[in-house]
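step=encode ok
step=design start
structure_in=
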């Protein structure tokens, strides 16, 4: 495949490494200094840019008929608009807050545990996410996806950064060194705690998942998620 990278930072460079190892070609590396973009050579675009840029990059891809994988987080206030424009242009689009296989397993584990905890009111849930100090958004997109999974399956109705009132999930965001991404969920009662945790050791898992999603989406039309790409049962 001929892949265009929108965002050539930490993730863009890791995606390039994984893509080349899978015999793909990088036909464009779009970044802040890019003036002209030639869409004619792209089979698929992969956007790992920044919260303020992602939506604009997606729209350009939809308008030029290029399927797009969006990994950038912190722009979900525009997600519904992006879906509508994708459909209007008969485009193809996958957004995932986290493309790694391990985190997508963790998403399923999170919902499974939440269903079991639904009526155990003696337990209170809390979340923590730890990332590198260069991360622009908080909480992480992954943490938001996890919180939504808990809300869907329990009596909790919202999430809040740091402290949260009863019925809302508190999320603590920490920025430490070069941490790739650690997410933990804790159900605590007077007598015990139950915790599940995912720790990324590097960015390879994120990049591999994004490239696999790119390989999957080529030739398709519509809006998809990583659940469509991964058959996790
Ligand atoms: N969904 C997932 O699996 C993952 C998502 N992410 C997300 O990906 C995004 C990027 O993360 P990193 O690569 O670590 O950040 P980074 O800061 O290393 O790279 C972002 C790059 O985007 C460039 N950029 C800024 N405006 C742009 C524009 N208009 N068009 C194209 N490029 C532009 C920046 O100059 C920079 O080179 C963040 O939102 C992060 O949360 C990161 C890892 C995994
Ligand atoms: O900024 C990052 O690095 C990451 N961001 C994503 C998120 O916001 O969840 C995914 C991963 O945790 C790394």
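sequence_out=
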């Amino acid at each position: 495949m001929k892949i265009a990278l929108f965002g050539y930072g930490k993730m863009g460079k890791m995606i390039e490494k994984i893509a080349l190892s899978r015999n793909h070609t990088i036909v464009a590396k779009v970044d802040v200094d890019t003036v002209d973009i030639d869409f004619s050579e792209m089979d698929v675009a992969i956007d790992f840019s920044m919260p303020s840029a992602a939506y604009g990059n997606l729209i350009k891809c939809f308008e030029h008929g290029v399927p797009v994988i969006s990994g950038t987080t912190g722009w979900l206030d525009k997600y519904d608009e992006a879906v509508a424009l994708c459909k209007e242009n008969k485009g193809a689009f996958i957004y995932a807050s986290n493309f790694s296989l391990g985190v997508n397993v963790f998403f399923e584990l999170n919902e499974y545990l939440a269903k079991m905890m639904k009526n155990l009111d003696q337990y209170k849930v809390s979340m923590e996410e730890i990332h590198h100090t260069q991360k622009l958004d908080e909480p992480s997109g992954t943490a938001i996806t996890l919180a939504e999974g808990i809300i869907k399956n329990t009596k909790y109705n919202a999430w809040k950064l740091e402290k949260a009132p009863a019925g809302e999930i508190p999320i603590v965001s920490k920025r430490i060194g070069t941490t790739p991404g650690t997410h933990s969920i804790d159900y605590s009662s007077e007598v015990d705690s139950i915790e599940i945790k995912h720790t990324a050791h590097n960015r390879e898992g994120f990049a591999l998942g994004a490239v696999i999603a790119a390989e999957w989406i080529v030739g398709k039309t519509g809006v998809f998620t990583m659940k469509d790409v991964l058959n996790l049962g």
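step=design ok
step=annotate ok -> Residues 101-117 form the longest helix (17 residues).
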